[in-house]
Structure formats: structure tokens, C-alpha cells
């Protein structure tokens, strides 16, 4: 079974607002900024097989032992779901929801929605089909199973100096699940899931020009060209008022909120370790220093970059880009866009520290001998990461080309 689509289409680039003529016979990118606009027809059967395999792996990944450890004759083990259950037990409901959604629920929903879209022949022409394809695009941004896997490995390395670690079948199944999930995500980006633009001929003369200059709105989901009078996209039914969320005032507000939350995130303890009856609070920087002193220099660098450098750098870079976007950036729009794309991509990896805390809280539960509890900084830090991600989403990169002389 193959996903079929018509040969040619008109799409508006969401990054630079240029109208492009694309084809399903080859991967298509925006001629001005290189944004990926669509791929050639792929085998839906192969993608479905990968989806089924991933969903099957998710069952043992959540039910079987993820990892176990033993110290001084006492042992403990955890499953994947324990990472959110234990946070819930400590009344960290918000963190528990974030971990459960980003690691298990959203990836599962993404896979099931993708399977439904590929199996449903009229997927893009029915109201439910359009809703599912739009959901796939939105869910994809918030999935962090791969980040959790890295965070779990860092947790195991931190524990290796104090206890004997033994991997369970659950972590092996989860690693396989993450691998297949990443492959499916990449394939779903390339499947031509939308019908051809019925107004392609009408918009053909605008190819290579700015959509805004011709009073045309590009859909942020399917990239279809829409007249300025429309309230929702003709093709995917996405409400076009969502474009209003891409504005400078919202970006600035989110960056300010993230900056405020970053202060307690760095000053307060992100977790508390109880060892032989002694409680030791540990901040993010304290955790980095502990890893460094114990000889785990590469891991210390990873945690330092993900937990301190990336959040601060992302806030500063977005702030600078916001200022530049208000000026004439026509001379270097490509450089500004590249910097934005890098900043946007690395932002989610700051969640590593939150997942490290979730794993340690779930695994290290030996009473006064050795236990780990979540600290107050965990909520503040998770909020910082989410706010910076929202700030990046609200940033309007089309401003980089808004003052080009040719437009």
C-alpha cells in the first residue's frame, strides 16, 4: 500500500513566507530558506509495520523491570511508569503529568494517530482525518522519549559509584521503542498526507514571492495558501487565528516568565539525597560538581550544558533575535534563521535534568539508608524549559524577510 497524492502543489513556507511550487516526486524544500515542505511518496505499509512494532515494544517497556540496583544488601527496582508514580506520591502532580505525557502518553498517541491516518483511505478529506493529521504535527513537538532515555542513562551512571546497577528487559524494550519512534517521526514528516491545493493555478504566479505581499496567508500546519478573508484553512481546517500567536509581544512575555522561573530553578535544590540519615540538598550546579569530582567528566559536561548553558543561551538568543527582527535583517536573514533553528531544536534537551530526578526518585527508595526526594527547583526548571519552548514557537521568523527590498 502506498500513499498517493497529486503531482504538484503550492505551499507557503512558514519560516520565510515565500510561495513555493512543490512536487511529490522528490523531497521539496523552500527555495529561499530551505524549510522542508514535503517529501516524495513513501510506502505506507513499511511505516505501519514500524508503528506496530513500536507499540508492541511499549508494552514490555512500561510493564517490565526498567532497572534495579542493590547497596549494602538492600535492593530496589523500578518500571518506566514508576518515574511518574513516585513523583505523584510526593505530591509533585505537575511534574508527574509532564513526565507521563512526554515519555509515554504522547508518543503512544502519535503512533496510533499515524496508523489511523495511514489506514484511512479518505484520511485527509474527512473532518476526523484532518483533525488527526493536525494532531500528529502538534503532538510531535512535545514527545521526549529520547531525552528521557538519555536522562535515565545519566541517572544510572550517577548511581554506579554507590550501588550495583542491573538493567532489566524494560530498558531494552524502551530503547527499541525510542529508535522506532524516531524513524516513524521522520517518515511521517515525508508522507504526502494532504490533498493537492485546488487553487494551485490561482497561486502559481506568486511562486517565489512573499505570500503576505499578495494578501495570502500560509497555513501553519499544512502550508496551504489561503485568502486573507478566510478564518480557517480550506485544506486542514486549522483555524487561521492561531497565526496570531506568532507575535513579538507574546515571545517577550514568555521569555520574561522563563527568566523569572530560571532563578529559583538554579538556586533551590532540584533533589534531596538522604544517606545514612543525613539529608543533603543538591542544586543543579551541585550535581554537576559531584559528577565532575567523581570522575564522570563527560556526563558532568552534558548535564552542565543541558541544564545551565542551554536554558540561558536560549533566552538570550531569542531576545537578541527579537531585537534584530525589529530592524532591517535583509542582509543576513539566513544566518538569523539558522541560529533560530538551532536554538529551537536544542531547547527540549534541557529536560534531561528533570528526567534524571524522576528516575532517581523512583529507583532510590531505601529509607534512611539511601533515598532521593524531588526538590522545589524541579517544578521551576521544568517550567523554564516549557516556557522557552513556547517562546520559540511564538517567534515569527517571517520578520527576517519582511523588509527585503525586493518585497
How would you portray this structure in words?
With 407 residues, this protein is an alpha+beta fold. The protein has a domain at 246-407: Up-down Bundle (Butyryl-CoA Dehydrogenase, subunit A, domain 3), CATH 1.20.140. The protein has helices at residues 44-63, 82-89, 93-119, 127-142, 145-160, 169-190, 200-203, 248-267, 284-293, 297-325, 333-346, 352-363, 377-394; strands at 8-12, 19-23, 28-29, 36-38, 67-71, 74-78, 164-167, 216-218, 225-227, 271-275, 278-282, 365-366, 370-374. A hairpin with a 6-residue loop joins strand 3 and strand 4. It is globular. This is Paraquat-inducible protein. It is found in: Cell inner membrane.
